Amino acid sequence: MSxxxxxxxxxxxxxxxxxxxxDERTARAATRAALGVVxxxxxxxxxxxxxxxxxxxxxxxSSGRDFMLRSGLSSGPEPRRRPALDALAVALFCAxxxxxxxxxxxxxx
Length: 109
Known about the structure:
Blueprint: H1 6-20, H2 24-46, H3 53-58, H4 64-70, H5 83-108
Helix pairs in contact: 1-2, 1-5, 2-4, 2-5
């Protein structure tokens, strides 16, 4: 997961939930589960927690944080945690429910 790849993936997931869930209760549960997984894995990557190496190495990133911020598209030293960067990451994570909701709205049309 990365800040570049997560939004389109969340929109697609929201659309799939809207189309496949048999009722609203199931759709809400699937939405919560999807957000829990995506935010959990993405936060673990951003914090460079153990066990995330298989994901970021597959994209040739230098760390989980590097993958979250640059999606493995550019190279260089690992981005250092700074308060402003952490605040930006939190703001991006806070937008994740909106991306999933957008996918559900698009699928309803």
